[in-house]
Amino acid sequence: MNTATQSPENTAEGVEALMNRLGQAARAAATMMAASSTAARNNALLALAARIRSEADTLKTRNAIDIYAAESNGLSAPMVDRLRLTDKVIETMAQSCEQVAALPDPVGEMTNLRRRPTGITVGQMRVPIGVFGMIFESRPNVTIEAASLAIKSGNGCVLRGGSEAIESNKALWALVQAALADAGLPKDAVQLVPTTDRAAVGRLIAMPEYVDVIIPRGGKGLIERISQEAKVPVIKHLDGNCHTYVDAEVDLDLAVKVTDNAKTQKYSPCNATESLLVHVAQAAAFLPRIGKVFADKGVEMRADARAKAILADVPGAQVVEATEQDWYEEYLAPVIAVKVVDSLDEAIAHINRYGSHHTDAILTTNHPNGMRFIREVDSASVMINASTRFADGFEYGLGAEIGISTDKFHARGPVGLEGLTSLKFVVLGQGEVRG
Amino acid sequence: MNTATQSPENTAEGVEALMNRLGQAARAAATMMAASSTAARNNALLALAARIRSEADTLKTRNAIDIYAAESNGLSAPMVDRLRLTDKVIETMAQSCEQVAALPDPVGEMTNLRRRPTGITVGQMRVPIGVFGMIFESRPNVTIEAASLAIKSGNGCVLRGGSEAIESNKALWALVQAALADAGLPKDAVQLVPTTDRAAVGRLIAMPEYVDVIIPRGGKGLIERISQEAKVPVIKHLDGNCHTYVDAEVDLDLAVKVTDNAKTQKYSPCNATESLLVHVAQAAAFLPRIGKVFADKGVEMRADARAKAILADVPGAQVVEATEQDWYEEYLAPVIAVKVVDSLDEAIAHINRYGSHHTDAILTTNHPNGMRFIREVDSASVMINASTRFADGFEYGLGAEIGISTDKFHARGPVGLEGLTSLKFVVLGQGEVRG
């Protein structure tokens, strides 16, 4: 345990030199990962699951160092809880590695092979992107999530976790490197930034020679700063101001059930509904019913004048007048913005103007309206008659989720293994030449 | 012809305000284009073809102004030729609009729809990206190419052509706007930057609120500068240092024919082969034959020591010793770098190190070697037994080509209509909620 890779923060090496070394090592290893067999990558994931289970006590001991420091530094109890590697968290990490191992291998898949008039056959092959950088906070299990997706997709990665979880992350990372070695794969494929120096992030996001894409998780401020300063593409979303729109023609029971779920099943996720739009034709019928649900659950309603006039009569409802700012807001709390609209057009225009292009749903029995909504709402996920809470890589069947993108380039929406790959063209010929 | 949109360069309006106005107009129109019918967009393309033919004389008159200025400014004859709107160029533009109209509509296509255990159906819908900015030089027909692909793909665009073609571009753009209006589509969907002020480019590439992606065509220096300064993704390639690798097991007749075509069919395209790698087992048999072809066609060979020793005996061969720099070079001329390698591994490593990740081919009869090559060579197009000259949107069956990308994100290789679109997730439910 005394090599330079394992404890460079104790050396005189500068952060830039350190990051260059990690990046270079990841890049070289990624080339080998890209050429590795499906079996070797799956074996590494199974070995990792086994090591997580067999080293549970070590993980808890190292985790205790982070917990002690966090408590000494006065971190709030919920923050400390997020750091904790309990038996349940440890078993879940092990299982997630096994689940990723069981997914189909995205690498090397060839699609769209077609014969051209010249005789050549042209198609596309899915290959790893190369090396991704991941920046995350608190929960140390993200180290295992990111590492397992890197291994499965044949990429290298450089992980930068939160300083409060550094001991836990190092312990987990040691298991990842050992599991790679178990499977005959280069252990340098997964790198962990071993220093808490913030300059490391600045370098990580600006070395295209070693790192092809950055995936940040964390607060909006952090992600905005990373996006502005990065010299490589960033897979990200900033906000989840998701809308549920209740159309003029709708099954009211369905609308109440889905809107309730979209808002209240959990308040903190980015795919929870934050704004409710109701067509004027259903306002008088729908708003009192959903208003009662929200009143019973203590959800505050920030309503426009027309919605307020109806909701004010609901016993126990907390209704306040919405300001312009409310239409932009991602509350992540028992608060919802409510607006009555005169048409589908107005609903679509409102969502495209105020929304965050994350996830938006229409509840309707009218087929053309549903089709117009999903085509014209410019968001990563668009839904008909379903809860916005479904916007999730596992619910979509991707098998895993490394992040959610609200950009239109490359991966959009929940990002699984495919978002970590690239499609190159392959041409299969028998000596054809161009005329 | 006296509205502000048509001649803003004559007003006191600043370039930034001008570009903001063009961008805003394109953004607003793009929303309508995204929602427009397939028929309307195809009608616009057919109307454009008709107008190009019926206004051929006007086009030639306006083009003559550019030609006169170019000749007065002492532009070289080949440069002036590239500017010229001949009857043939005009007819080709009209036909290309008809060909784009005949392509399948990429917009609204839904794929991968699958039922999930929860009951929801999840898939992806292809939608326009929004607005692209295109920066190009000399040939005015690019105005029609870019406009027709924007119309077909339901995008808006802001075009910035070369100052030497400004009158021709304006005349073509007027036809585009008229054709959009013919079809009941917003004419603002296609904007032309009407000023030759270079500050316009700086603004075009840095207004993500209006322009989603930049596609530059031109010299490497221009594209590098744009890539560094752009605040939005750039679809681009810098070099085409393409390789042809002759493997240890190969059909020599095929190898001579394909290598000849890859190098000499045309010298200037980015997909012409610039470096030839030959396995040592075939060097003595293959190099004299290809050396004779190159000698006869006046192609200079920059060879490593082992290749030079063989090629020196070929009558009439122009052989010089290669320097390290030759392995990086994109000659775009009757010059080729030649190297003997000891293994497939060495060939792959050489290509990944010195190449430009554009297009590389292996000529082999050995199946595992072919498969390893196409998997491990990290380029946008990889080929077995075919000429690198095939790397082209039309040859690949994309129906059109807006550019070629050597990046791994989003579109890679020749970029057709799909590269101008984005995939969003669609969820079709019957009132499902998340548990």
Give a verbal description of the structure.
Two copies of one chain form a homodimer. The first copy, chain A, is an alpha/beta fold and 435 residues long. Chain A folds into two domains: 14-104 and 127-235 and 417-422, Aldehyde Dehydrogenase, Chain A, domain 1 (3-Layer(aba) Sandwich), CATH 3.40.605.10; 242-395, Aldehyde Dehydrogenase, Chain A, domain 2 (3-Layer(aba) Sandwich). The first copy, chain A, has 14 helices and 16 strands. The first copy, chain A, has a seven-stranded parallel sheet with strand order 10-9-11-8-7-12-13, with helices on both faces. In chain A, strand 7, helix 10 and strand 8 (273-279) form a beta-alpha-beta unit. Chain A is globular and about 65 Å long. Residues 1-10 of chain A have low confidence and may be disordered. At the A-B interface, helix 1, strand 2, helix 10, helix 14 and strand 13 of A face helix 1, strand 2, helix 10, helix 14 and strand 13 of B.
Short descriptors:
disordered N terminus, alpha/beta, homodimer, Aldehyde Dehydrogenase, Chain A, domain 1, seven-stranded parallel beta sheet, four-stranded parallel beta sheet, 435 residues, 14 helices, Aldehyde Dehydrogenase, Chain A, domain 2
CATH homology superfamily name of the largest domain in chain A: Aldehyde Dehydrogenase, Chain A, domain 1
Question: Radius of gyration of chain A in whole Å, from Cα?
Answer: 25 Å
CATH topology of the largest domain in chain A: Aldehyde Dehydrogenase, Chain A, domain 1
For the termini of chain A, the CA-CA separation is: 61 Å
Name the pair of protein chains with the most residues at their interface, and give those residue counts.
A-B, 65 and 65 residues
Task: Walk across the major sheet of chain A and give the strand order.
Answer: 10-9-11-8-7-12-13
Quaternary state, please? homodimer
CATH secondary-structure class of the largest domain in chain A: Alpha Beta
Helicity of chain A, as a percent range:
40-55%
Classify the beta-strand content of chain A into a percent band: 15-25%
Count of discrete alpha- or pi-helical segments spanning 4 or more residues of chain A: 14
Helix and strand content put the structural class of chain A at alpha/beta
Tell me which CATH architecture of the largest domain in chain A applies here. 3-Layer(aba) Sandwich
**Overall morphology of chain A:** globular
What count of structural domains of chain A? Answer: 2
* Mean of all residue-level pLDDT scores of chain A: 95
Strand count, sense and barrel status of the largest sheet of chain A are: 7 strands, parallel
The low-confidence runs of chain A, each spanning 5 or more residues with pLDDT under 50, are 1-10
Strands of chain A, total number: 16
Encode the helix/strand succession of chain A as letters.
HHHHHEEEHEHEHEHEHEHEHEEHEHEEEE
